[in-house]
Amino acid sequence: MKVALFIPCYIDQFYPEVGVATVKILKKLGIKFDYPIEQTCCGQPAFNTGYWKEAEILARKFIKTFSDFDYIISPSGSCISMVKIFYPEIISDEESLNIAKKSFELTEFLVKVMNIDSTGAEFNHTVTYHDSCHALRELGVKTEPRILLKNVKKLKLIEMENSEDCCGFGGTFSVKFPEISSDMARYKVNYILNSGAEFVTSTDQSCLMQIDGYARKNRLNIKTIHIAQILSNF
Known about the structure:
Pfam families: CCG. One of its GO terms (molecular function) is oxidoreductase activity. By secondary structure, this protein is an alpha/beta fold. The protein has helices spanning 9-14, 16-28, 44-48, 52-66, 77-90, 94-101, 106-113, 133-138, 143-150, 173-176, 178-195, 205-217, 227-231; strands at 3-5, 71-74, 103-105, 126-129, 156-157, 199-202, 223-226. It folds into 2 domains: 3-113, no CATH class; 126-231, Rossmann fold. α5 (77-90) packs antiparallel against α6.
């Protein structure tokens, strides 16, 4: 089984600790993998902004880089949804369909492909989970992260109200419509605060960045942590 690790741009540039946490998990579980150094952006920012031709260039590079692997995994529902759902839409050929079938968000890969329900991690805190739009609505990832979190030693999972509501980030949406984005974040942050949990986690660092940014600006006591960082705490 040939496994490749894909690290999204924003994790590589701003949150490398999430990539490191993902590597720790895979090594702990004995999953051998490669990290193709040629990898770059999946093309989602260009695609979402309407630059489909530019996105196609990046998509074809991604396909060329990862085509020889059996599985491509990433600690991001957002980027994997780009590959899995939208590559076949902008390219629409056999190669794009094949790469889509082989691409998985991290928790989905662990639970559905590897049949793993625990990483052996320990995290002595209360945690609430935010369902990211891409992971939930496009990939159908909902139970997988919760299965893994519930099996983390000493962790207490508290479900917030309306966990499936969007955080308001949406990539370039937050730039084009900052007022709407900020108001959506306000609602999400209130749900998190009302849960009483110490931490909020998600499969997507982009959502956590949005939540953390709003909380910091408004001096609210909310701690964000990517699910890979919890699952690698052993």
